[in-house]
Amino acid sequence: MKSYSFAKVSARGMLTEADYNNKYIFTEDLRNIVNLSETQRIERTRFIRERAIPVHNLPLTESGSDMGFRNLLMAVRSLLIIDHFGQRSLVCCDFGVNRSRTVIEAFHYAKMGYHFEDEYKGCLNHLIYNCEAGHLPPLEDVEHELRFLRDYKGGDFQYIMEMKERGIF
Predict the structure, then answer these.
(1) How does 96-130 read in b/e, with b if 16+ C-beta sit within 10 Å?
(2) Which fold has domain 2-153?
(3) In this predicted model, what pLDDT tens digit does every residue of 124-135 receive, in sequence order?
């Protein structure tokens, strides 16, 4: 599992049954799980339901001309909202190497306004690599959309208030 200092967010491979008892993964302030796997879904187990943790299954592909830009933006939106309230998010994919880190690096750009450094295949980071490899739109377009999310704090006020009413924050 990779944790980041700029926000309460972690990247990891797919969750296993044993992970539900791991206090370092399922911390008291965990309020968001984003699953990016295209082959595995995270079901709302009794444990997750009891803790009222939203689970977002937003698959991204590992190849092709569109790895799932719309889902990437939806994942970043959820991370921005949870971050706004100082809560923790967990981002999972099959192995926690490319997709989860790409989303977290996009979240970093949306939140901070500059790129996170995590060299990947000769590029500054996974996000830039996926843009240059043609798996995402051109970098300038991605940056534009991420700035838009940042300017609107990741989502609309009504959605945030609904989350507060459900006791998520």
Answers:
(1) bebbbbbbbbbbbbbbeeebbebebeebebbbbbb
(2) Protein-Tyrosine Phosphatase; Chain A (3.90.190)
(3) 999 999 999 999
